[in-house]
DNA sequence: CAGGGTAAGTAAAAAGATTGAACATACCAC
DNA sequence: GTGGTATGTTCAATCTTTTTACTTACCCTG
């Protein structure tokens, strides 16, 4: 994302006009079908101002007028919608399992998506392969005539908060990679904004941003895959991802759940990843790198050793969720990553522990909304695309 | 705090003017001695706009002109400073050990402070006692003629994020208390803004806000006392405290550090508080409620049992710090609370574990700034006062 | 089915904020 | 002392929002 707002905000009249236009656009995006009058009420602006702003946005092709709403006593309002046919967003992800590319509209509707399985490879080779996949997606007829707003790329590791640099991706074997530069060399003519983000942070952002019903005020995404990561997004006006000073926020795989426990590849002992992660399960159950971990385990569920390992991992996952819940208190939790495909053997212990303990503090009975994404293949890529849109609206509109 | 920013920001010309005035005021607050020209450059406004804004702020008594700076080739600029003599901020804290009240200037300079030791009591009785203490502080000659901007109150428990309601303070035995209402009944004529916040969140805010040298972009405050709490504050423009949907963010005392460990009073097992907290140390070492825990332990340091208990607690604290570091990646960490008075027997194991493991992920050698407050008696009260100022500037200026 | 009532959206004048350009001020170096 | 440079102020110009009509459009009532 990298929305620059270090300094204290001050602005001129142009800034104000942009601000108001962004507010209008964001409102219509979040609540499709709003009328000019609705917007004026909610934004505390006059009808005239909103009318003017809407006209510009219509002319620029961001909005379209929809049906006439039924009257509430007087002249009926005209519904406003995002123009979902003019633009396209691109999102991509490099994961341990392969490459994902998605093209979607402003409202997050998928136009086309591609996914290829691929073992981790060097950054430049990967960039070349990803560029090929991106080209294939762009050439799809669904994208015809649409204007590209940009490309977001998600990677499985911490990204510098102020520049598009991947610090480290242990499961890819990458370190200090300027991945967008490599990609730019392959796709010199691809326009729009480009940005790089961590996989879980992008996913978290997308899950919150592409929501038309009640948007939660904050959302935690936990990605359980080869490694464990998370992203927290929240904060009223423009959703903002917590990144931390070095982009390490959310690297929960190395929070300690078991002091003095097993050694982790990071060198410390008892990290969450030693208890619940793809690599820990492989190590514990002897699944080789050439096999698909989830498929293999799903076929070995009746082995007591496997069942027990998944149960233990599930409990650790539940503990991890509980700790995050107490540390961040998000309005909603979404659980994704390849390990969710393991289903109840892993998830039931996790959810049981979490639901049993989440309300210890206040003694309430309200359950925290927790959603599990069964197939999160394109979640991060979609989130990266969402970030492109948010950035564009913030800067342009 | 409760800065209302749920809706998408939009604004009129008044809003813009206020925004720019706030920006000017905040800049001068953070960097005393700035000239109008400096501000114009940094805020990307014209000299004329800044000049106008500064004049209003001078007339309103927020700013004062200072010395003439030395010329950099042309006419020397006039230094601007916060007017530290016109206003006063009040901060108060109800802790397990007693009551604290502080009066300070806009720059955070203490004018007067009072502290009385007191065992936990019922909310209304406590409000009465606190009101008495506040009256004493107000009557102090140092506060003569100063205009009161408001009162911030810090309590040791989660506060509702949208209204001044204390949900629960286990160590005071309070639940669902509208403490400001109780206090208002005792102090009907005390003017300005009143606000309520969690003790650790207020402390975190104050530690970041009342800083004139390089302000870190985010700060984590960990409060180790009878219970364990924390507050994280960050985010460029206006520092914002992470509160969570139910105000539970930062309630790290009940993150699980030892699955299957000791039972906690919350009902769960292995919570951080069972390993490092005032009440856990009392329970483990048989220190009665009538004794001061820290004083008692400082006299019993040579007992192997005590030394070992402090070492274990310290290691748990280190683990807690490490987990927070990996979850939130704050630019700076501040450790406070009554337990810091225990000194090296507790803190050395904590710091050793933290420094040894904080850079496992990236393999860097940079140490995260970590400051320990030896005497944090007034830290939370001061922070609550800081929140009053931030709120006032945000709304008024 | 005509007419009043109500609310949505638009147009033009008025109000208000920032900018731009010119000007006054103040120090320094030669 | 004079020229140079940068700070800070003044005032007309510019731009954006508001204010105040006014038009449009539907519903309900008689």
UniProtKB/TrEMBL annotation, chains A, B:
Entry GO MF terms: kinase activity
Keyword Kinase: yes
UniProt KW keywords: Kinase, Transferase
One Pfam family it belongs to: ROK
InterPro entries: ATPase_NBD, ROK, WH-like_DNA-bd_sf, WH_DNA-bd_sf
Family the entry assigns: Belongs to the ROK (NagC/XylR) family.
Official protein name in the record: Putative NBD/HSP70 family sugar kinase
Originating organism: Halomonas organivorans
Lineage: Bacteria, Pseudomonadati, Pseudomonadota, Gammaproteobacteria, Oceanospirillales
